[in-house]
Design a protein that fits this description.
498 residues, alpha+beta, Protocatechuate 4,5-dioxygenase, Chain B, Glycoprotein, Type 4 Pilin, Dna Ligase, domain 1, 3 domains, nine-stranded mixed sheet, four-stranded antiparallel sheet, 14 helices, globular
Length: 498
C-alpha cells in the first residue's frame, strides 16, 4: 500500500511538472532595454515614477486609460500619470490593446498562451474571457501572432505596461490584444466585443500608443495636439479616417479608437488629458522626437457636453467665399488647382472638415467635402470647391459659361459624435453620418430642412446615401454620428450665416 501511495504521488508530481512545463508563458522581450531586467531595480524605478505624480484630480470612474509604450527613461513619467490613478483599484481583468511593431497580420490577435512574464513575475491570462473575445467576431482570433518574437525581435507595446500594472494593482488577470488591422470596422468589431463581454464586470481597458515619430520638436507638438484634441472631442470617427490616411500619426491609433468604442459602450463619456511630453523634453535633442500622451476615459455623471459652437468673423467668411470662387474658376478655366499661399487668419488655419456646395438658381450644381479635419480650413475650402466644380460624379463638370451664375455655400463641420439615442437628433441643427462596415453616407444639416424631411426620413435618406437599406439605421451593426455645421453663403440672405 505504501508503495502504491508513493507511486501515485510520484505520478501526480510528474503530471504537475508536465503541466507547468506545458504552460505557454510569453517571456520578456525588452527587459534590460526598455526597462531594467533586474526585479529590484525595476520595482524601484516604477515606484519612484509613481511616487512623483501629483494627487489625482480625476474623480469619475475610470473605464480606460491611454498610455505610451516607449522606454521608461523617455515615456515612463507620462505613463505613470495614468497608472497612478489606479491606486486602490482591483479590477477583475485588464484588457491591453496594442499595435504590432514586429510583424504584419490582418486581425486582432488575442494571446493564446497562459501568461505574460516580466522580471516582477508572470501575469496570468484570463483565458475564458480571451476565448470568448476571439469567438465574438471573425476579425478577432486567438493567436501568438504579434506576441511571439519574430526574427529575434519581440513586441514591446503590451509588455512595457505590465510592470506599472503589477506595482499598482498587484495580482490581476490580463487579456493581451495586438491589432494587426487598423480600419474602422476592425476597431469597431474589437471595441464592441470587449464592451459586450465586460458588461457587469470591473474591466479596465488600456490603449497602448505613442504619438508622432521623428519630427522636429515644434512640429511634433502641433501634430500631437491634433490627436489629443480629437480624443478629448470624442471624435474617434475622424481619428480613424486620419490614421488610415496617415494624415495624423500615432502608432497605436487603432488601439485608441477600439478602446474609445469599447469605453463609450461601457458608459465612458469624457476624455481627460493627464500629461503630454516628447522625447526632446528628456534628451534635449529637439531635431527628431517621439510624442507621448496619457489620458483617462471616464464615466461622468454629467450629460455629455456638446461640442462648443464654431463661428467665423465676417471678414473670414468673405475670404473663404472669395477663395472658393477663385479655386472653381482656376479649376474650370485652367484645369488645375489654385496655387494658394495661405492666410494670416488663425481661424482659417485651424484644421476643420468642410463642404462647398455650388448652386444655380437655388439648385445644386455640385457638392464635395472633406468630412474629417485633414487640412487647415482655408486649404480644405480651396480643395473641395475645385472638386465640387469638376469632380462631383453626380453632375457634369462646370463649364466656363456657367461661372458667373454660380452661388457658393460653405459648411464648416463640428467634430462627429456617435448618437446614443436617436431622439436627440434635431432636424435643422444636426447633420448625420451613417456607417456600417465600409459603407458610409453623410448628409449636411441643411438638407432635411430644404427637403422638408422629419427625423425618420432624414435617417432613412442618410442610409440610402450610404448605399444601405432605408431602415439600416435600426441595425445593431450600424453606427449613427451627428455633427453641426456653421453654414454661410454668398446669397444675400445667407451672408451672415445660417
Amino acid at each position: 500500500m505504501r508503495k502504491q501511495q508513493l507511486g501515485r504521488c510520484a505520478s501526480l508530481a510528474i503530471l504537475l511538472a508536465a503541466a507547468a512545463f506545458a504552460a505557454q508563458v510569453r517571456e520578456p522581450a525588452v527587459a534590460g532595454a526598455f526597462y531594467p531586467a533586474d526585479a529590484g531595480e525595476l520595482r524601484k524605478m516604477v515606484d519612484a515614477l509613481l511616487a512623483r505624480q501629483p494627487a489625482s484630480t480625476v474623480q469619475d470612474p475610470i473605464i480606460a486609460l491611454i498610455a505610451p509604450h516607449a522606454g521608461y527613461p523617455y515615456s515612463g513619467a507620462v505613463a505613470a500619470r495614468a497608472y497612478a490613478l489606479l491606486k486602490g483599484r482591483k479590477p477583475e481583468r485588464v484588457v491591453v490593446i496594442a499595435p504590432s511593431h514586429v510583424e504584419p497580420f490582418s486581425f486582432a490577435s488575442v494571446y493564446d498562451g497562459d501568461a505574460y512574464a516580466t522580471p516582477l513575475g508572470a501575469v496570468p491570462v484570463d483565458k475564458a474571457f480571451a476565448a470568448k473575445l476571439a469567438a465574438a467576431d471573425r476579425r478577432i482570433r486567438l493567436s501568438s501572432r504579434g506576441h511571439a518574437p519574430v526574427g529575434g525581435r519581440g513586441e514591446h507595446a503590451i509588455e512595457v505596461h505590465l510592470p506599472f500594472l503589477q506595482r499598482v494593482l498587484g495580482d490581476f488577470q490580463l487579456v493581451p490584444v495586438v491589432m494587426g488591422s487598423h480600419g474602422y470596422a476592425d476597431c469597431r468589431a474589437l471595441g464592441t466585443a470587449i464592451a459586450k463581454l465586460a458588461a457587469g464586470s470591473d474591466t479596465l481597458i488600456v490603449a497602448s500608443t505613442d504619438l508622432s515619430h521623428y519630427h522636429p520638436y515644434d512640429e511634433a507638438v502641433k501634430l500631437d495636439r491634433k490627436v489629443l484634441a480629437a480624443i478629448q472631442d470624442w471624435d474617434y470617427l475622424s481619428m480613424s479616417r486620419n490614421f488610415e490616411s496617415r494624415v495624423w500619426e500615432a502608432c497605436g491609433g487603432a488601439p485608441v479608437v477600439a478602446a474609445m468604442i469599447a469605453a463609450e459602450r461601457m458608459g465612458a463619456n469624457k476624455a481627460v488629458l493627464l500629461a503630454y511630453a516628447n522625447s526632446g523634453d528628456v534628451t534635449k535633442d529637439r531635431m527628431r522626437v517621439v510624442g507621448y500622451g496619457a489620458l483617462a476615459l471616464t464615466k461622468s455623471p454629467a450629460a455629455r457636453a456638446a461640442a462648443p459652437p464654431f463661428t467665423l468673423a465676417q471678414s473670414d467668411r468673405e475670404e473663404l467665399l472669395r477663395l472658393a470662387r477663385i479655386s472653381v474658376e482656376t479649376a474650370v478655366r485652367e484645369g488645375k488647382l489654385y496655387d494658394y499661399k495661405g492666410t494670416a487668419s488663425e481661424p482659417l488655419m485651424q484644421e476643420r472638415g468642410a463642404f462647398v456646395t455650388l448652386k444655380q438658381k437655388g439648385v445644386m450644381r455640385g457638392c464635395v467635402g472633406y468630412p474629417a479635419p485633414m487640412k487647415p480650413l482655408s486649404y480644405t475650402v480651396r480643395d473641395v470647391a475645385a472638386l465640387a466644380a469638376v469632380h462631383d460624379r453626380r453632375f457634369p463638370p462646370v463649364t466656363p459659361v456657367e461661372l458667373g451664375r454660380l452661388q457658393y455655400e460653405i459648411s464648416v463641420l463640428s467634430p462627429f459624435r456617435r448618437v446614443l439615442n436617436v431622439e436627440e437628433i434635431r432636424v435643422g441643427r444636426d447633420g448625420l453620418v451613417i456607417r456600417r462596415g465600409d459603407a458610409e453616407g453623410l448628409l449636411l444639416p441643411q438638407v432635411p430642412v430644404e427637403q422638408g424631411w422629419d427625423r425618420n426620413t432624414f435617417l432613412e435618406q442618410a442610409c440610402l446615401k450610404a448605399g444601405l437599406p432605408p431602415r439600416a439605421w435600426r441595425d445593431e451593426e450600424t453606427d449613427i454620428f451627428s455633427f453641426t455645421a456653421f453654414v454661410f453663403s454668398d446669397e444675400p440672405a445667407g451672408v451672415a450665416g445660417k
